[in-house]
């Protein structure tokens, strides 16, 4: 092989390819393509479905357009598997040539998909995760989160317990990274005594043994992180053991729109830390919740809210940035963070592209025949996460 | 660690064991007598919970909900036997595993299409919703109900197998199906009945577990694995063995979860004990199974034939 690509021919080839691509894309030139990746099967399917539905609701409200261009939304199921997430992201970027990727699943899938996203410069908005590496030294200019830094809600509950003057708190979580992170977040703001820190098996169905230990420890409150079905199991069993009245239950990502249909009265009296709840009384949120309930016949969860917000951010950003310019779009998305009206009230992107937002405490109460959240406190106002100082971005 | 706690934890172990037995009884019969590996047994359990939740939603009666779960899964078991399982008896175990694993995926998606991804609601009946006080310890009354139901099923299935004509045919069919058929017994019908009864017991387990667990797609998988451990320890095909093994597994698992992290803390650093304790506890029943397999491969209480 003696023929080599000279810089000149290389450039010509590239230009030719670019022209071909443009020619191929021209009939769709006024369309914005968005790829949503979320877990849409398996036990966590409801978390992914809420993100898709929240995003699609916003697109529908905007007349099927984002930033004035007709929106073409592609959906893919990552099955909560990092390797599949990585494949989907490559497909979105290389084959579908999406303008932005939304969703990005749980922290483990997000981290596995990150290299290709960063390399391509494609704008990505996570609506379900904000792992600490991404918030700190590993922050990226084109990767955003409209959700939370993972510790945020737990920090709020720690602050809430501290403000209440509790002396002894009992902590419980599943035995994996997120469980440990949540308890760390709680302890960052709670300075009282930790009676015990119990890690249970992931997807454990029965908590009777742990509940008996909890009962004998007699703490002022118990703080738990049990997402999805684990939370339904835990709270039902705690309520049946007659413990809800004896030990106040504080939780994060445990009592929300995804689990309340299975919990109902069992969750009444518990307090949840979150940056959003259907009960938040802002005009944007009232409209969002009403429209979501009308369209999908269920109450949205925080996962629907973050995706709904992501669509509104993209709507503003795509209206400003030139089509196909990923760098300009990233800048526009960052600016749009402080311009759009979030359903959660105050919102902006921090230097690390993670949210600056309030974290609230919601008590689960009975209202007529429904079980709903009620805002009882705002432990953290305009909270910035603990890692943003390590991020080199401005 | 006082004696009340130990007693309460024993009770927890007993209750967990009884719930496992409800599942294991059906599975061990089908596995041991028909030599059919049924991974979809967990799906029948899940369907039982969904049937119960739906019936509860319409009638508001827990008794009717349990009845609907049993009837529903009995019929589902019959249909499943007729459509899929009957074609597989003559194939080898790998085909059974493949086909029934497909059924697991099928049922998981089916419930999502019918009932949605969110967990559905099933409540403890009013008269069992209180907690009973045992020496200053409150224990849910409903858990006692599970123990009672499990023991009734244990006695009932023992009587069925050892004291009735059907039971005799079932035992005979297990040893030599060709001979039983030659004597004029419809072995085909016998198998279908047995499979359906196993399904009904799984449905009953699902209905009983529904009020304490999250009724959702995929709820059958984790419990199926533990159930397989139970029937291996108990001896495949032995209902009595399933009962003893279920109680052993229930108590070992519960005690391990409570006392292992506690004991580790006495000998190692706190942070290590917190991380290793739950991990070791979750391995405990599998270690037990490995020991039993090495020492008595036929199980602790094999069926007498």
The fraction of residues assigned to DSSP E strands of chain A is 15-25%
Q: Say what the CATH topology of the largest domain in chain A is.
A: Rossmann fold
Provide the number of structural domains of chain B: 1
The number of helical segments of chain A is 13
How many beta strands in the DSSP annotation of chain B? 2
CA-CA gap between termini of chain A = 48 Å
CATH class of the largest domain in chain A: Alpha Beta
How would you describe this protein?
Chain A is of the alpha/beta class and 394 residues long. Chain A folds into two domains: 11-148 and 281-349, 3-Layer(aba) Sandwich (Rossmann fold), CATH 3.40.50; 152-274 and 359-383, Response regulator (Rossmann fold, 3-Layer(aba) Sandwich), CATH 3.40.50. Chain A contains 13 helices and 14 strands. In chain A, strands 7, 8, 9, 10, 11, 12, 13 and 14 form an eight-stranded mixed beta sheet that branches. In chain A, strands 2-3-1-4-5-6 form a six-stranded mixed beta sheet, with helices on both faces. In chain A, β4, α4 and β5 form a beta-alpha-beta unit. In chain A, α6 (152-163) packs parallel to α7 (177-189). The longest helix of chain A is centred in the first third of the chain and has 19 residues, at 7-25. The model of chain A is unreliable at 1-9 and 19-28 (pLDDT under 50). Chain B has 305 residues and is mostly helical. Chain B has a single domain, classed as ABC transporter involved in vitamin B12 uptake, BtuC (Orthogonal Bundle), CATH 1.10.3470. Chain B has eleven helices and two strands. In chain B, strands 1-2 form a two-stranded antiparallel sheet. In chain B, a hairpin with a 2-residue loop joins β1 (131-134) and β2 (137-140). The termini of chain B are far apart. The mean pLDDT of chain B is 89. Classes of the chains: A alpha/beta (394), B mainly alpha (305).
């Amino acid at each position: 092989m003696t023929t080599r690509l000279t810089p000149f021919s290389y450039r010509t080839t590239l230009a030719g390819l670019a022209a071909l691509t443009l020619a191929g894309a021209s009939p769709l030139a006024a369309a914005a393509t968005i790829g949503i990746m979320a877990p849409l099967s398996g036990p966590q399917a409801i978390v992914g479905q809420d993100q898709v539905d929240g995003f699609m609701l916003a697109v529908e409200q905007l007349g099927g357009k984002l930033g004035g261009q007709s929106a073409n939304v592609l959906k893919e199921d990552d099955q909560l598997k990092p390797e599949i997430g990585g494949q989907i992201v490559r497909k979105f970027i290389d084959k579908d040539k999406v303008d932005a990727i939304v969703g990005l699943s749980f922290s483990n899938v997000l981290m596995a998909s990150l290299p290709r996203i960063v390399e391509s410069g494609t704008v990505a908005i996570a609506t379900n995760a904000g792992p600490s590496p991404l918030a700190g030294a590993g922050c990226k200019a084109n990767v955003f989160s409209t959700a939370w830094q993972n510790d945020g809600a737990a920090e709020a509950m720690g602050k809430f317990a501290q403000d209440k003057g509790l002396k002894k708190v009992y902590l419980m979580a599943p035995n994996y990274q997120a469980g440990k992170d949540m308890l760390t977040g709680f302890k960052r703001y709670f300075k009282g005594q930790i009676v015990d820190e119990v890690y249970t098996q992931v997807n454990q169905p029965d908590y009777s043994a742990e509940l008996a230990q909890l009962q004998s420890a007699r703490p002022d409150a118990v703080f738990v992180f049990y997402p999805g079905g684990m939370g339904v199991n835990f709270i039902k069993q705690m309520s049946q053991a007659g413990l809800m009245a004896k030990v106040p239950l504080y939780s994060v990502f445990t009592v929300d729109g995804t689990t309340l249909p299975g919990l109902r009265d069992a969750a009444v009296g518990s307090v949840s830390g979150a940056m959003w709840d259907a009960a938040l009384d802002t005009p944007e949120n009232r409209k969002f919740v009403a429209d979501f309930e009308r369209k999908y016949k269920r109450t949205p969860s925080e996962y629907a809210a973050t995706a709904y917000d992501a669509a509104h951010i993209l709507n503003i950003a795509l209206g400003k940035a030139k089509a196909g310019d990923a760098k300009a779009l990233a800048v526009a998305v960052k600016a749009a963070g402080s311009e759009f009206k979030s359903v959660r009230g105050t919102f902006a992107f921090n230097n690390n592209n993670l949210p600056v937002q309030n974290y609230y405490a919601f008590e689960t109460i009975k209202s007529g025949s429904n079980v709903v959240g009620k805002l009882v406190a705002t432990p953290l106002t305009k909270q910035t996460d603990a890692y943003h100082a390590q991020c080199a971005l401005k | 660690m006082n004696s009340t706690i130990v007693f309460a934890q024993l009770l927890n172990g007993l209750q967990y064991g009884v719930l496992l037995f409800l599942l294991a009884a059906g599975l061990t019969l089908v596995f041991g007598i028909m030599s059919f590996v049924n991974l979809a047994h967990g799906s029948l359990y899940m369907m039982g919970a969904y049937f119960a939740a739906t019936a509860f939603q319409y009638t508001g009666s827990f008794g009717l909900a349990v009845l609907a779960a049993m009837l529903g899964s009995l019929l589902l078991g019959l249909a499943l036997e007729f459509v899929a399982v009957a074609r597989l008896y003559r194939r080898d175990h790998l085909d059974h595993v493949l086909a029934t694993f497909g059924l697991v995926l099928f049922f998981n998606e089916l419930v999502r299409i019918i009932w949605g991804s969110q967990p559905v609601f099933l409540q403890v009946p009013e008269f069992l919703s209180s907690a009973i006080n045992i020496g200053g310890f409150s224990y849910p009354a409903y858990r006692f109900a599970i123990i009672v139901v499990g023991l009734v099923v244990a006695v009932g299935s023992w009587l069925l197998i050892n004291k009735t004509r059907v039971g005799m045919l079932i035992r005979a069919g297990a040893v030599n199906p060709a001979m039983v058929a030659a004597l004029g017994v419809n072995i085909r019908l016998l198998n279908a009945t047995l499979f359906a009864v196993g399904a009904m017991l799984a449905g009953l387990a699902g209905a009983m577990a529904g009020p304490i667990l999250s009724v959702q797609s995929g709820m059958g998988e984790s419990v199926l694995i533990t159930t397989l451990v139970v029937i291996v320890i108990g001896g495949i095909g032995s209902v009595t063995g399933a009962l003893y093994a279920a109680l052993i597994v229930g108590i070992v698992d519960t005690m391990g979860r409570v006392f292992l992290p506690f004991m580790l803390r006495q000998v190692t650093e706190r942070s290590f004990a917190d991380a290793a304790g739950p991990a070791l506890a979750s391995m405990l029943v599998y270690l037990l199974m490995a020991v039993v397999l090495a020492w008595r491969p036929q199980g602790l209480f094999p069926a007498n034939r």
